[in-house]
Design a protein that fits this description.
single chain; 7 helices; 6 strands; 34% helix
Length: 207
């Protein structure tokens, strides 16, 4: 097990926490991580893009010119794809990009992502992240004190609107809960800040 220092919101060490090997020391599997990130990004797509085919563009009911005798190529409609203002050939239509992953693959991917963060010393555990008012300045001071300024993912153990709203005002900072973290968000941050309660929940669920 890896022992990681636990700090308070002022950056002072208040103790240590043991991060279990079954969650934070798993062998990283690039193929599994790639599949998990790809699935997450695909599931974010709305799939609402759409183009008009030649049957959906208004107009074009009259044949531009007679079939023979003009010396020009035969044309049946001014709404064919080769015409200006014509329909689009083989264009995108609304569709679902959703893809699902096996539950075991999801768990393995998340464990691999967390293990990679621990190996790179990018995990910071805070004993408690609290606030009693909407104060972005307080959260900025905390991140600076613990060395997590910049692109950061903050994982909370429980909902606290004051903390969430205050952190949401900071550029590059994203907030998640212990039961909603995903591989993409873990990878897409320079520092992973875990509330102590969140770290314990993650170990309890995924160990």
């Amino acid at each position: 097990m890896a022992n990681v220092n636990v700090v308070d919101m002022a950056g002072k060490v208040t103790g240590t926490i043991e991060l279990v090997d079954s969650v934070f020391a798993v062998e990283v599997n690039p193929a599994v991580l790639h599949a998990a990130v790809r699935a997450y990004l695909l599931n974010q797509r709305q799939g609402t893009q759409s183009t008009l085919t030649r049957t959906e563009v208004s107009g074009g009911g009259k044949k531009p010119w007679r079939q023979k005798g003009t010396g020009r190529a035969r044309q049946g409609s001014t709404r064919s794809p080769q015409w200006t203002h014509g329909g689009v050939a083989l264009g995108p239509k609304p569709r679902s990009y959703r893809t699902d992953l096996n539950k075991k693959v999801k768990r393995l991917a998340l464990k691999g992502a967390l293990s990679g963060k621990l190996t790179d010393n990018e995990i910071i555990v805070v004993d408690a992240i609290t606030a009693t008012e909407y104060k972005t300045k307080t959260m900025v001071a905390m991140l600076n004190a613990i060395g997590a300024a910049g692109k950061t993912l903050v994982v909370l153990a429980e909902k606290n609107d004051f903390v969430v709203e205050s952190l949401s005002n900071i550029a590059g900072v994203k907030v998640a809960y212990a039961n909603t973290i995903n591989v993409y968000d873990v990878f897409n941050c320079n520092k992973l800040v875990l509330a102590k309660g969140a770290a314990e929940t993650i170990m309890e669920v995924y160990a």
